[in-house]
Amino acid sequence: MDISFQIQDAVASVIRAPLASPFRIATGQHDELENVFLKLTTRDGVSGYGEAAVASHITGETVPGTLANLQNAAAALRGQTVEDAESACRQFAAAFAGNHAGLAALEMALLDLSSRVRGIPFYRLFAPVAALEPRLAFSTDITVVIGSLDEARATAREFASRGFRAFKIKIGRDEQLDLARVLAVHEIAPDSQIILDANMGFCAGSMLAFLDRLAAKGVRPVLLEQPVPKMDWDGLSEITAALTGSETLVCADESVGSLADARRAIDSNAVSAINVKFMKSGILEGAEIARLAASRGIRLMLGAMMESALAVTASAHFAAGLACFDFLDMDTTFFLKGELAHSPYLDEHGRFDLHDAGPGIGVEPSFS
Ligand SMILES: [Mg+2]
């Protein structure tokens, strides 16, 4: 037993951070970040950190419930020697049934600790899919949240001028306004990729009609995320069938929260892409979803809930290690203010570069 892996202290705590502007989608909005963090420290003083981004309006999880689960896990981990972080993660999975954001935080902290004690970057824990090398540099899209036409224009102008080349536009509240917003972003950034995220706001017929109206104006999104309610598998399949052979991928987000969901989506030809997020499935199951999807020719997006620089940077490592993601949607730090808005590997142009990454994730939130 290697005692450098012995956990001496473990603490879970809620940390808040202000948003620079509200994050609005079809089903709700965030006005601040209020996430649960976990810090594990070895007897040698090496710490690993994890974060749970609780999206109550999407997953039904709560901050108090997540905090309680992580406090219980922290109590169980004190004094334990965790040399095999993956098997420790799997031991706790049952205790976090229905609280995948909590599970993600636990896995993140254990894997961060493991990579720091070993002196390797976090991405080294994830072997590339299909024998590719790690992909250490890539760019994120930027989200145009639900809002007015002027707000959409302002976001597009600011981020296009900063060099962003992929705009993920939230739609699904007001079809007429959505159409105007998408056209405005395309006009301001004509060479950029357009991604639409309806967050379940349409039915199959209205979604296809909306895409036709965009096509008539020369706008063809590269990807359409979660057009219909999460259990509307027929609607998803109908849209996917209608768009087969077109340049628009149909991507499940809310519909796929687990490996079982991913299998169902793939086996029923319901989608051509899947959005993986730590907070939906945890980290290890997220990697399994990615491997399954990649093996079946399904394209992959890596996304985030309202996550701080810690979870966003952990996700960047995950994307770098697995090297199978075509769409990176990890822009939430651009909506934050303060210490938690800063990832050491993300620049103001939306470009991640992990070539010089040190041990672990590389972000150490301060616990008061
Ligand atoms: Mg989404």
Describe the protein in words.
By secondary structure, the protein is an alpha/beta fold. It is 37% helix and 21% strand. The chain has two domains: 5-121, Enolase-like, domain 1; 124-353, Alpha-Beta Barrel (TIM Barrel), CATH 3.20.20. It contains twelve helices and 13 strands. The longest helix has 19 residues, at 100-118. The model has no long low-confidence stretch (mean pLDDT 96). Residues 197, 199, 225-226, 253, 275 line the site of magnesium ion.
Number of helices: 12
Mean pLDDT: 96
* Distance N to C terminus: 32 Å
How many β-strands, per DSSP? 13
**Given this structure, which CATH class of the largest domain is correct?**
Alpha Beta
The radius of gyration is: 20 Å
**Elements, N to C (H/E):** EEEHHHHEEHEHEHEHEHEHHEHEE
Assembly of the depicted chains: single chain
Shape: globular
Residues in helix, %: 25-40%
Primary descriptors:
368 residues; Enolase-like, domain 1; TIM Barrel; 3-stranded antiparallel beta sheet; globular; binds magnesium ion
Outline of the structure:
The protein is an alpha/beta fold and 368 residues long. The chain has twelve helices and 13 strands. It has helices at 56-59, 63-77, 85-92, 100-118, 149-161, 175-188, 204-216, 233-243, 259-267, 278-281, 283-295, 309-322, and strands at 7-25, 28-42, 47-52, 137-139, 142-144, 166-170, 193-197, 223-225, 249-252, 273-276, 299-302, 327-328, 351-353.
